[in-house]
Amino acid sequence: MKTKEIFNIFSGKRVIEKPKEKKKIIADYREKNCLIPYELMDLGVEVEFRELKVGDYIAGDIIIERKTVSDFISSMLNRRLSNQIEDLKQYQDKLLIIEGIEEKELYNDDNETGVHANAIRGFLLSVTLKHKIPIIFTKNSEDTTKYLLILLNKKENEISLNAKKKGRNKKEQLQFILESFPGIGPKTAKRLLKEFKTIKGVINATKEELKKIIGKKAELLSELTNRDY
User: Fold this and answer.
1) Contact criterion met (CB below 8 Å) for 65 and 53
2) Which letter, b or e, does each residue of 89-100 get, where b requires 16 or more Cβ atoms within 10 Å of its Cβ?
């Protein structure tokens, strides 16, 4: 970064002036197909594309998941959004943006989506109240871009390449260990711990005991816990 020397007429001294760092945001590579990154570039923001495991953008230490109204509805139906919310809530600072409410009705009870408006309202309440994830509704991509720019202006600190995860409590730590096994998600991990109390209890359980709780997944879990290194 280049610096320049300027003369201070009040002190009568020459001082070194450092130029302001360019604002920077990290975008998931799939966002190349939308207008937002290029609108940010036009506003002087440096956009770095990379493969993000969670979220679509990282602004400072904030993880942002962006959904168009259509994508929100479809990912809600196939439960993909539920999994993304589970990933998103592990981070200290996160945000869900639902984009396009000016162009498409979110609460639509017709046959187009088959989703009742109250089901959508209930899901949104769950995201905000249960998972503590703020939601912002934007009119279009330009509106989303403006929100991201405001976030960047508020985050003058250097971009964090690894957003800060919340510290897990003891129960979450145990669940996290079990979720590392293939086929074991959050709900299955909770059921196993509720039944066997400890990780040791799960590992020492017989295949028959596991089958009563997780069905066919018991075969793989039993095989993995007894496999030689």
Assistant:
1) no
2) bebebbbbbbbb
Three-class secondary structure of residue 63 per DSSP = strand
* 219's tokens: 């075969």
What whole-number distance in Å separates Cα of residue 196 and Cα of residue 210? 10
What is the share, in percent, of the chain residues with pLDDT greater than 90? Answer: 30
Cα separation of 162 and 14, whole Å? 39
Full-model pTM: 0.60
Question: How far, rounded to the nearest angstrom, does the alpha carbon of residue 214 sit from its chain's CA centroid?
Answer: 28
Of 96, 99, 80, the residue nearest 88 (C-alpha): 96
Tell me how far apart the alpha carbons of residues 7 and 222 are, in angstroms, rounded to a whole number: 74
> What would the two tokens of residue 210 be?
């596991």
pLDDT in tens, 55-107: 999 998 899 999 999 899 888 888 888 889 998 988 888 999 999 987 777 77
- Determine whether 143 is exposed, middle or buried from the number of CB atoms within 10 Å of its CB (0-12, 13-18, 19+): middle
* Ordered domains of the chain (ranges, CATH): 24-154 (3.40.50.10130), 170-225 (1.10.150.20)
